[in-house]
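quick one: 6-O-phosphono-alpha-D-glucopyranose bound model?
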Amino acid sequence: MRPSSLVVVANRLPLDDNIAPDGACEWRRSPGGLASALHAILQQTPATWVGWSGAIGPSPKLPSIGSLRLRPVALTEQEQSGYYEGFANSTLWPLYHDAVQQPVFQREWWETYRAVNQRFAEAAAEVAGRHAAVWVQDYHLQLVPQMLRELRPDLLIGFFMHVPFPPPELFMQLPRRIELLVGMLGADLVGFQREQAGHNLAQLAQKLLGAEATDDAITVGGRTVRTGAFPVSIDVAEMRALAARPDVVGQARQLRHDLGESKRILLSVDRLDYTKGIEHRLTAYRELLRDGHVKVRDTVLVQVAVPSREGVDSYRDLRDRIEGEVGRINGEYGRVGEPAIHYLNQRFDRALLAALYQVADVMVVTPLRDGMNLVAKEFVAAREDESGALVLSEFAGAAAELSAAFLVNPHDLDDLKQTLLRAMEADPADLSARMRAMRAHLAEHDIMAWARAYLTALDHTGRLARRLPRTG
Ligand code: G6P
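yep, here:
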C-alpha cells in the first residue's frame, strides 16, 4: 500500500456488512456517530483508514472508496471477545458513561486489549508516510498514540475521544489506569467533545503521573500534550438534501398517514444501549398514559432501537427488558389497530430516518450520558419547516450547543414527564424560534467545521485542514 500523509485509525471500518462477490463494498453507515461523522470527511480526502471490518477471521481484500484507502485489521473470535466486547465495551464504555451500568473487569481482557492496540499501531505505522498525521479515534484504541510514538517518532499524532471522559473519582477505579493515561498522552493533541473532559484528564495526569497541567496543555516527561474541546457534528448539507428528496418527502407523507393524520407523534431513535435512557423514557411514557395526560387515541410513540453489541450480556438483557416493557404498555393501553408504541428493533435506512424526523412532533433524545448524540443534530438539520420540538437530555454533549431544546434530566422521572408534556403542548411560535436558533448554530458548526478545527489545532499550519473538501 502506498504511504499516506493522513491516516485515520478507528476500531471500525465504515464498511457494509456484506461485501459483494466481486469484492465491491459500500460505506456502511454505522449506527454510531463516529463512522457517520468521518464518512462525510474522508470519502473525498486522500487518506488511509485503518480499522476492523466487523467480521471474525482474516479480512477480505478491500477496494478503496473514492480516494480513501482501507487497511483492515483482522480480529480472531478470542480478540473480538476480549478486546471489543470485553475491555472496550464491558469495562471502559460503562465506566466512561457515569457507570450507569456496572463496569466489568476481567484480567485476561486487558492483555487482549493491549495486543490488539499494538496491532492497530503497527498497521498505522506501516501505511503512514514520513511525517504523516495519524488521527486515532475513541476508547477502543486508547493505547495506540503512545505505541505509535515509539514505533514512529516522526509522526504527528492526534487522538479524539468520542465518548465522555470521566471525572477522576470514576477513572481511578480502573485497573491499568496509568497505562491507559500514558497511552492517550502519547498524542500531540487530545480532543474531547466537552471542555470538562480536558479538565478531568489534566487532574488525572497531575495526580497519577505528576504532570504539570494548564487548561489546554499537559506536560509530562519533558513533552507537552495539548488538549481541547471540539464538539463533533453531522453533515448538515447531506441531511438537508436527503430530507428534501421527493421520495423522502413522499415517504414522510405516507408515514404521517399510516401513523394517524391527526395524531401527535413522539419519536426516539437510539442504538439499543443502556446509556440511551430508553427504559427511563418508557417508564415516563407509561406513567403519562396511566395518569391520563396522554391518550392513545391522539398520541403515539415511535421507538427505533437499532441492534447493537448483541454479543454482550448486558445488551441482550436490556433488549429483553425493553421488549417486555413495550409489550406491557401496548397490552395495557393499546387499542385494536392503535398501539401506544411502535417499536422497531432493526437497522434503519437513512432515507427512512430522514422521513421519520420530518413527521415527528416531538423528538425525544434522553440519554443518561452521551458523548455528543448526533441524532439530535440530524433531527434539527432535517426540519426545514422550522417546526417540531426537541426534548434533549442535559447529559448529552449536544445539550451544550442545542440549548434552545427542551432540556431535561432523564434521571428525574417527574422532570421527564413534565418536559415531555411541555414540549407536546408548546406554542408553535415558540417552537419555531427554538428550531431557528438550533438550525443557525448547526449551519455554522457542521462536520467539516469540526474536522477543520481539530486538524488545524493538530498541525498549526492549516496544511491538513486545507486538504478537506470545501463543503460538507
Ligand atoms: C459510539 C462509539 C463509536 C462506535 C459506535 C457504535 O458512538 O463512540 O466508536 O463505533 O458507538 O458502536 P459499535 O460498537 O457498533 O461500533
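Residues 236-444 form a domain with the Rossmann fold fold (CATH 3.40.50.2000).
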